TrEMBL record, chain A:
The keyword Metal-binding applies. InterPro entries: Glyas_Bleomycin-R_OHBP_Dase, Glyas_Fos-R_dOase_dom, Glyoxalase_1_CS, VOC_core. It comes from the Bacteria. Signal peptide: none annotated. Pfam families: Glyoxalase. One of its GO terms (molecular function) is lactoylglutathione lyase activity. The keyword Metal-binding applies. It comes from Rhizobium straminoryzae. Residues 155-272 form the VOC domain. This is Glyoxalase. Keywords: Metal-binding.
From TrEMBL, chain B:
Keywords: 2Fe-2S, Iron, Iron-sulfur, Metal-binding. InterPro entries: Rieske_2Fe-2S, Rieske_2Fe-2S_sf. Transmembrane segments: none annotated. It comes from Rhizobium straminoryzae. The keyword Iron applies. It comes from the Bacteria. This is Rieske 2Fe-2S domain-containing protein. One of its GO terms (molecular function) is 2 iron, 2 sulfur cluster binding. Residues 15-122 form the Rieske domain.
Amino acid sequence: MNIIGPDYLIFGVDDVAACTEYLTAWGLKPVNVTESGGLFETLDGTGIIVRHKADPTLPPPLPTSNMLRQQVYGVRAAEDLDAIEAELGRDRRVTRLSDGSIEFKDDHGFELKFQVTIRRELDMPAEKINAPGAPAQRRPNEIGVWEEMPALPRTLSHVVLFVPDIEIAARFYCDRLGFVITDVLTGAGPFLRPRANDDHHTLFFIRTPEYMKGCEHLAFHMGGPTELMVAGTRFVKKGYQSFWGPGRHKFGSNWFWYFNSPLGCHFEYDADMDKHDDTWVAREAPMGAEASQIVLFEMREKWAPGGPPPGAKH
Amino acid sequence: MSDPTALLQHTETRYLLCRASDIGEGEARGFGPLAGSRRKIIVLRRNGVLHAWRDACPHYSTGTPMAWKTDAYMNGDKTHLTCHSHHALFDMETGQCILGPCLGQQLTRVNIVVGDEGDVFVAGPTEEI
């Protein structure tokens, strides 16, 4: 089962126009978007699909106020879909669609779809830094930042779910779909990566009451911490609401910046996440402010020392 | 008869939020934060009456800001004050969460007064706001 990670997350929203504005400002590209919604994609083609909550083509809603309707996972090849169908078909209905993709529900009732991934391979440099003692990553005269520098989400990184039972959730994704637990925040839940992705996590669970079941946040990989902070600063300047960050997580080492959204969950820019292989031994730490971040900052308006000397006449 | 000096002092410490005419029926806007506070004050009009709430969703103990964009405090159907962290819906008149992570909890009401000129002020102490 070569599962790579989320290709699309599908939402049934109550204000398509607001979501269109938001997702575009976030840095996603509208693809065939109309008044009834559509796809908003990252640079590699993964992204968010929104439709009005009354759209009959949407999968059914969760029994909560959450707007997530379906998680669409990408796999490497058609054989992976066959393997998933064979495994899940043992105890639940698996629907094979005409395009070869398959749909079923996980053990908490989240709607899942698996397809041969649509993601395009990216060929772009990571953020380059210079440091004493290491070879320079930027050539002489190559500058690091400029006002109009691009800072667009490169790919859909991960999704975080509120689930009532961590054991049930972790068992389902690990035992049935081959995910691996990379680290655990006790009191919240485990970080998971699928077999065909070496990112620290594409999935994380947070234990919550049944009435909160849904998507807590989703995240996009940026080209580096500078892109993350540039994109977030531009977003705040346009009037969007920061929720948490910028900062850098401990588990996963990824930089983060979370924002509120009209999709009923947080949106995160992330950057520079750890990679792991099967030799990694999962760590465990109690959930809390210390465990969840190495540094945390809060944006403020630009300021610089200077100005007229004290007592100067205007 | 009231002491005119006391009235003057009271007026000086009142915090002006907006004009009543700034808030249309079914609309909400955020003002502030007041000096020393981290959170804005949401002023909304429902059935002709102005209500003010601290812009702090009770889901987390510290309270977190609720809009998804400046002044965007309502759900898409414009029926509820909404926290756009996790789509918690609040009754506009009672501040009660009726759906979402903070189900059964309540927003913190900010007492306001509308002056003769139509200015909307925070009434009473603002330390907790």
